[in-house]
Amino acid sequence: MNRLMKPYRLPTCVLVLWLLAGAGLIFPENGMSQPAWVPTRPANDANTRKGYDYFYSLEYDKAIREFEAAQQAHPEDPFATNHLLSAVIFKELFRIGALDTESFAGDAFLKRQSIPLDPKVRDQVHQLTDKAFQQSHQYLAKNPDDVDAMYSRAVTRGLRATYMGIAEKAWFPALRSAVGARRDDERVLELDPHYVDAKTAIGIHLYVVGSLSLPVKVAASIVGISGSKSRGLQYLREAAAGNGESASDAKIALALFLRREQQYKEAIKVVGELSAAYLRNFLMATEYANLLNAAGQGPEAIAAFRKIIAGCHSNAYTICRLEVPAYGLGEALKGQHDYHGAVQAYELTAASAPDPELRQRATLTAGEMYDLLQKRDAALEKYKAVIAENSSSISADLARHYMKEAYKTP
């Protein structure tokens, strides 16, 4: 998933948007307040509970059916609408490859040619978003300090930011919505300090803003947006340990940031817990293998990637995209100087990937491995294939360079 053996990098705006997608968007746990209405949660609704399990196993169609049933039973509840909205969005993000964090490695994501969005899904996302806002506002009109309604509005704003930013690439409107989500969550904590799930989104935002360059950070502070990497990590640890229903989301964000900080030991522990909790989720298993490789445990990572690929073939996972662990395996093998094995892994990636950008990148790297193996003719064929795929991409520019001068280990 991630570019291995290097500190993890994401465009800052993508970090805000993508991680808000997991920041308590599913089934927030109430604190100590006693609302005038009872939000729909897994603890009090069987359909929501089943949907939750399906969602984290990447079984989005089943999750959507359960959330639709819950929404029909609770037609005025913004929580139920948000659950359905999140499943619809994440199903689309998974389809276009946006849940594979390798998709965001470096700023090339901003220029990549994405898989076209489904217009029917776009319409459904906007419809559900409008409905969730309307429902939250109805409760807030009666009580402006209704923490559940306010939290629900934060969730909707975060989901809207996620879809607009990652799927539609409407960056500035998405960022405005993300900031609105943070401010709602901050107000929730002012009203109820025990509403631990609100700390997930705030923790993410604190860390991301704290990671900005000094000039950008100063500009953000002028409009009242503060940041701190250490405080962000602490908020995420508290949310993860609070056993609220955004605990898993907090762990996902925490692990990503820990990797960015090269705190691999803690990151491996966190992702190991997630992987054990969601055994049929191949993305969790792949991220664990990626972390092993990033931590310098190459042989262990290679074994983990091979196990995932075997699991994909044996249907051990509810769904599997073979190109994701295959690319990770190629990176791990390359790190161990097994260039022949890496070629095979990259070729498997290219043969399996529906994403043209990943397919190009895997083909390019296969060519690099052939150069290192001193198989120049095979390398040139790969470089030609890269250019034929998309001659205006970054990978194509590199391929043209390597056609003139063979790739050498940096």
Secondary-structure map with pairings?
Elements (H helix, E strand, L loop, with lengths): L11 H9 L25 H11 L3 H14 L4 H18 L23 H24 L4 H21 L3 H21 L6 H13 L3 H9 L6 H13 L5 H14 L3 H14 L4 H13 L3 H16 L9 H13 L3 H14 L3 H17 L3 H14 L4 H11 L6
Low-confidence segments = 1-35, 103-110
Helix percent reads 55-70%
Return Rg in Å. 22 Å
Share of residues in strands: under 5%
Distance between the termini: 22 Å
User: Total helix count?
Assistant: 19
Give me the secondary-structure category: mainly alpha
Number of strands: 0
The helix-strand sequence is: HHHHHHHHHHHHHHHHHHH
Would you give an account of this structure?
The two termini are 22 Å apart. This protein has helices spanning 12-20, 46-56, 60-73, 78-95, 119-142, 147-167, 171-191, 198-210, 214-222, 229-241, 247-260, 264-277, 282-294, 298-313, 323-335, 339-352, 356-372, 376-389, 394-404. Mean pLDDT is 86; it is low at 1-35 and 103-110. By secondary structure, the protein is mainly α. Helix 10 runs antiparallel to helix 11 (247-260). The protein contains 19 helices and no strands. It has a domain at 1-262.
Q: What's this, in brief?
A:
The chain has a domain at 1-262. It is built from 19 helices and no strands.
Keywords:
410 residues, mainly alpha, 19 helices, elongated, disordered N terminus
